[in-house]
Write a structure and sequence with these properties.
Largest sheet: none
Mean pLDDT: 86
Low-confidence stretches: 1-8
Radius of gyration: 20 Å
Distance between the termini: 68 Å
């Protein structure tokens, strides 16, 4: 058995970067898919209960935090307890702090892309809701005015 440290060749490093890029892309696609699903759920179960809203927003929080941890692993950034806690308890504050710490001024580009992602997620949620409401009304499942 060889106990010597191994050097990372160019191909291994590229494969590692591609793996992280694929993981982050999958998380973003899962966020978009879940936004669509949340739009459908909101129409089918139109409760305004805050517990329901919390349960529906929990997967988005988990996916957002997992993106940050995947990005940190890609960049070799050690996520401390305080940063992890900040991301989990308040992603809206923790994400910009994390991005500024890992990217410096390049964080503003990533934050702009994040705002674009949130707009696209909201659009997916609203469109899925309207399509579900229209289909439900057309099928006679309910007679709601939206």
């Amino acid at each position: 058995m060889d106990d010597r440290p191994h050097e990372i060749s160019g191909n291994d490093a590229e494969a590692k970067v591609v793996t992280y890029a694929v993981k982050k892309r999958r998380i973003i696609l899962m966020l978009l898919a879940y936004s669509t699903l949340a739009g459908i759920i909101e129409v089918i179960f139109p409760d305004t209960d805050s517990a329901t809203d919390f349960v529906l927003s929990l997967p988005m929080l988990v996916l957002g935090v997992s993106w940050c941890f995947t990005d940190a692993a890609e960049r070799g950034f050690r996520m401390g307890r305080l940063m992890s806690l900040l991301l989990i308890l308040c992603l809206a504050v923790g994400l910009p702090v994390y991005l500024l710490r890992t990217r410096g001024f390049g964080a503003f580009k990533t934050l702009a892309l994040t705002v674009l992602l949130v707009v696209v997620m909201s659009t997916c949620m609203v469109v899925a809701g309207y399509v579900t409401a229209y289909a439900g009304n057309a099928a006679g499942l309910w007679n709601r005015v939206f």
